[in-house]
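We modelled the chain as a single entity of 199 amino acids. Its sequence is:
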Amino acid sequence: MIIYLLRHGTTIYNVEKRYQGQRDIPLSEDGRAQIRQADFTTDVVYVSPLIRTRQTAEILFPKARQVVVENLKEMNFGSFEGRNYIEMEHDPDYLAWVESNCETACPDGERKDWFCDRTCTAFAQLVDEALREKREQLVIVAHGGTQMAVMERFAVPHYEYYHWCAPNAGGYKLDASRWPQERILTLLDTVQYTKESGK
């Protein structure tokens, strides 16, 4: 089975480098205009509940049924959401979080390891279900954080978390043949579904 793990298109928060997290921010006009339809089709695409993933999936796969998976949501950055690093450069909570390599809990939000466990569990359930149903492909449109968590935990070659943040409307094509025995996904290719990209 082939898995496509894709990131949503560009939002205003992405452009302004704001922590977006679980705020329900739509694609920007430019973000919508940049996305092109995917070069393959699917009957079903799994999305997070946040509108930016659903809008992206609609453009990539206009005929597909969308299935919302709550736990594919981006990390909850708590009181950091809606702000960027420039606005928080003197915030002691933010500075302490950065000093911890962003591993501690965000105020009123999640810890990175909680988030990774949440999203990886949801992802693994989708893979197991798709394999049980003998599907040929599984398509997920989620978030940069979702990609990083899943790829760090399951992908080979192995790289650390931040290596795996794909560009907006980009992501990974994965082979799940080793999953049933080893819980491993083999990276086949990177994909990018913006109009300036032919890949």
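As a brief sanity check on the tokenised model: The longest strand covers residues 185-192. DSSP finds seven helices and seven strands in the chain.
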